[in-house]
């Protein structure tokens, strides 16, 4: 019996070659892309899931009710972790951690590695296996380090016999010897914390100066709760602790007009589950877990599968009408509903089975280009999990059940005589039309999302950031020499080059450089009886000149003024916060009774992510604070040659250090790399979704035209023009697209408007985005259906009327 069903299924598939091929091509493309997208989404969602203690491990953060509104801080003072462990119950393990690059020297070989300064308890909390050395204590003393396999191969070329070897690390401005105590497994690709070497936390350059200070905050804290202790219990336990240790800050905030939270508190510790850390956002003054990116990818994969499945169901229903006589004959010979159903289902299953196999082959062929294009480390292991395979199998079963079962149900309800006549009244094709409307609703949503996302990216790319990003090269100072010395040496090397206009330096980068770092420093102080918070930036001479910043009042740091080490240059936002009519008259007493004077005000510029509102900024020029980036402004002509000249100068100044220079416009582009990836995925999903919808629409239009062949012939005989016949056949489909547009537009507007609120400045949500998406969908549908209907309308009416 099964053999007979398979034989009939094969014959029917071969008989309808066009529709079989359309189904297989569409399903294969959809499955291939869906596998790759699902793989990426599941990889993103798997971040930090490998930690054995993940259910009891958290990152600490502090919510602050300030005069400026609610703020979140994940940077903590050095004495906080030991004090919490001693004074607050419920903590099993707690560890400080900070990520920085560190320069390593071994046998005259220099290289920079990703370092993590950690407390020993870091390895009791997290699962980073030790391959060699003491697995329970990878950092047995202050002068020991642990190194990953990847880091070991970079330094020694091997992981064999390296335990006990001594390497030098540049800590601050000094080199210190360290002994390798352990070799660790490489950090997994889905780990939020990525490192090549771990160093005891007390060796951090800021540790000694900050170990007793509660106002110097620069590192995150992770902790593991005792078994049975809930997050709510821990947060409640910290209330007396916060009131004691942050008393001065709370009183200052109250004095300056801060409003308490719903619980009447001004500062409160909270915990973020470690599995949410990768998706955490603190930019709006509240802690949010935003998984939009992976869910969006997963949603597009499901949408693509839905579109191609809708095509398959529509074509299966339409094709079933051509098999009425076969069904009538089989019913005459005694076939029952179950047998008809099984026949249709088997045919659907056969097409899906072939498509799934081809989809797996195609996805494997596209894997490497896909990973490069979307900058992901995902692998097929992410989609071969048992739960995923079971869900996928269940989905295929349901789709084929609908595709095969619905036509069989329709056919089995027919009387035998009516089936033999080949007459089927399927009403107004509500299911078919409903699926087409849903397909084009999704297509219009994707097109609108693509247009808005590309518009936002272009807006960010072309936005005036307040500085010259096209002509300035930023270079991480990753060598042995002092930052000021390197900047001075670069000036000397490049001073005779007419294409080099100026050289300066700072302790923070603009955008995200090739070294991958992006950071900021904040400080607070009292001014005229109220608290003031500002971002702090250490700069060298010619900073404003190099970046083409606009000076609003006063002057910049000048070599002719010896007192400029005690001077400040502030931005407009900082001047507004200080509130004086004449900002150049402001003097600010800070630590150790040292008074600083404001000598200049620069126009606000985007020194942080473009998505953030410009905050108060204060520029210092204090030689005690090092520089970590050099800036070189080049002439607009011969930019490529100028870049090479800068690189050559760097190789003379720091011959052992890697040159990681890049233009600031490249750095800015890296800050919205996630948006560009989203745009690429949505664009690809839109194109594929539309193509798949068009395949289904084209196939359905062929069947509709075939069913109305006689009608076309009659209309032409009585004088109907080709255009009127083509319009008659096309308008029903265009009505469905219009309905889809009316459904999609308000949905798209709501979600896109919500998404744009994440940006301090963004593109306006113009009606043109929605009209463009609707017109594009209409045009595509018209071309798809029109090519077939015009051909039918142009046919000889005699031939049309002669057909039975």
Would you mind describing this structure in some detail?
With 804 residues, the chain is α+β, with helices and mostly antiparallel strands. It has three domains: 2-43 and 292-459 and 674-802, no CATH class; 54-287, no CATH class; 479-659, no CATH class. Helices cover 49% and strands 19% of the residues. The protein contains 24 helices and 26 strands. Strands 18, 19, 20, 21, 22, 23 and 24 form a seven-stranded mixed sheet that branches. It has a six-stranded mixed beta barrel with strand order 4-5-10-7-9-8. The model has no long low-confidence stretch (mean pLDDT 84).
Fold blueprint:
Elements: H1 2-15, H2 17-45, E1 57-66, E2 69-73, E3 76-77, H3 80-87, E4 91-106, E5 109-118, H4 122-125, E6 130-133, E7 144-148, H5 149-155, E8 166-171, E9 174-184, E10 197-200, H6 207-210, E11 217-219, E12 221-225, H7 231-245, H8 247-255, E13 267-273, E14 280-281, E15 288-289, H9 292-320, H10 324-332, H11 337-374, H12 386-413, H13 416-420, H14 430-462, E16 472-476, H15 483-494, E17 500-506, E18 521-527, E19 530-538, H16 543-547, E20 551-554, E21 567-571, H17 572-578, E22 587-589, E23 595-602, E24 617-620, E25 629-634, H18 639-653, E26 662-663, H19 664-671, H20 673-707, H21 709-717, H22 722-756, H23 767-793, H24 797-802
């Amino acid at each position: 019996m099964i053999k007979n069903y398979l034989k009939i299924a094969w014959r029917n598939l071969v008989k309808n070659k066009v529709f079989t091929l359309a189904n297989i091509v569409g399903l294969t493309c959809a499955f291939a892309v869906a596998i790759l997208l699902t793989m990426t989404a599941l990889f993103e969602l798997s971040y930090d899931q490998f930690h054995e203690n993940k259910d009891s491990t958290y990152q600490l953060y502090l919510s602050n009710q300030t005069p400026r509104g609610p703020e979140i801080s994940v940077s903590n003072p050095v004495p906080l972790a030991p004090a919490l462990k001693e004074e607050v119950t419920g903590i099993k393990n707690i560890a400080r951690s900070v990520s920085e690059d560190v320069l390593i020297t071994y046998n005259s070989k220099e290289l920079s590695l990703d370092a993590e300064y950690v407390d020993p308890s870091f390895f009791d909390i997290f699962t980073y296996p030790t391959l060699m050395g003491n697995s329970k204590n990878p950092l047995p003393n202050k002068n020991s380090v642990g190194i990953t396999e990847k880091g070991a191969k970079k330094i020694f070329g091997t992981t064999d016999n390296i335990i006990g070897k001594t390497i030098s690390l540049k800590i601050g401005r000094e080199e210190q010897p360290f002994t390798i105590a352990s070799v660790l497994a490489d950090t997994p690709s889905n780990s939020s914390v990525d490192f090549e070497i771990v160093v005891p936390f007390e060796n951090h350059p800021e540790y000694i100066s900050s170990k007793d200070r509660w106002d110097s905050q620069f590192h995150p804290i992770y902790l593991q709760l005792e078994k049975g202790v809930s997050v709510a219990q821990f947060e409640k336990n910290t209330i007396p602790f916060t009131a004691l240790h942050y008393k001065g800050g709370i009183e200052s905030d109250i004095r300056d007009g801060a409003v308490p939270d719903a619980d009447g508190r001004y500062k409160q510790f909270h915990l973020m589950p470690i599995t949410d850390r990768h998706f955490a956002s603190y930019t709006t003054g509240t802690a949010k877990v935003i998984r939009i990116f992976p869910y969006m990818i997963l949603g597009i994969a499901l949408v693509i599968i839905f579109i191609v499945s809708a095509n398959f169901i529509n074509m299966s229903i339409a094709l079933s009408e051509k098999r009425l006589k076969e069904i009538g004959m089989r019913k005459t010979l005694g076939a029952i509903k179950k047998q008809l159903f099984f026949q249709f289902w088997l045919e659907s299953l056969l097409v899906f089975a072939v498509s799934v196999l081809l989809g797996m082959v195609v996805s494997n062929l596209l894997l490497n280009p896909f990973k490069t294009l979307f900058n992901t480390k995902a692998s097929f292991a992410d989609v071969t999990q048992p739960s995923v395979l079971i869900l996928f199998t269940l989905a295929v079963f349901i789709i084929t059940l609908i595709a095969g079962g619905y036509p069989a149900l329709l056919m089995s309800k027919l009387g035998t005589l009516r089936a033999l006549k080949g007459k089927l009244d399927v009403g107004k094709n509500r299911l078919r039309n409903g699926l087409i409307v849903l397909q084009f609703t999704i297509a219009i949503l994707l097109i609108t999302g693509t247009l808005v996302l590309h518009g936002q990216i272009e807006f960010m790319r072309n936005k005036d950031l307040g500085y010259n990003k096209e002509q300035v090269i930023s270079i991480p100072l990753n060598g042995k020499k002092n930052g000021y010395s390197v900047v001075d040496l670069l000036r000397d090397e490049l001073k005779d080059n007419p294409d080099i206009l100026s050289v300066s330096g700072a302790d923070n980068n603009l955008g995200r450089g090739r070294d991958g770092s992006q950071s900021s420093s904040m400080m607070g102080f009292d001014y005229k009886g109220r608290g003031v918070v500002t971002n702090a930036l250490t700069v060298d001479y010619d900073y404003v000149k190099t970046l083409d910043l606009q000076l609003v009042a006063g002057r910049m740091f000048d070599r002719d003024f010896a007192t400029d080490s005690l001077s400040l240059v502030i931005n407009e936002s900082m001047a507004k916060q200080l509130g004086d009519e004449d900002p150049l008259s402001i003097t600010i007493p800070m630590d150790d009774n040292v008074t600083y004077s404001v000598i200049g005000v620069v126009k606000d510029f985007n020194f942080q992510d473009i998505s953030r509102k410009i905050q108060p900024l204060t520029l210092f020029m204090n030689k005690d604070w090092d520089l970590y980036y050099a800036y070189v402004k080049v002439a607009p002509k011969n930019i490529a040659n100028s870049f090479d000249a800068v690189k050559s100068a760097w190789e003379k100044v720091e011959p052992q250090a890697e040159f990681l220079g890049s233009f600031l416009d490249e750095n800015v582009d890296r800050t919205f790399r996630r948006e560009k990836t989203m745009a690429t995925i949505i664009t690809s999903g839109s194109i594929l979704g539309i193509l798949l919808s068009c395949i289904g629409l084209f196939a359905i239009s062929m069947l509709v035209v075939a069913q109305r062949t006689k009608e076309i012939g009659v209309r032409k005989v009585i004088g109907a023009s080709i255009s009127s016949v083509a319009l008659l056949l096309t308008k029903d489909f265009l009505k469905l697209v219009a309905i889809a547009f009316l459904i999609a537009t308000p949905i798209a507007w709501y979600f896109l408007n919500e998404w744009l609120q994440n940006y301090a400045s963004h593109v306006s949500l113009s009606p043109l985005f929605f009209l463009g998406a609707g017109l594009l969908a209409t045009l595509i549908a018209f071309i798809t259906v029109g090519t077939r209907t015009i051909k039918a309308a142009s046919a000889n009416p005699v031939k049309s009327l002669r057909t039975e």
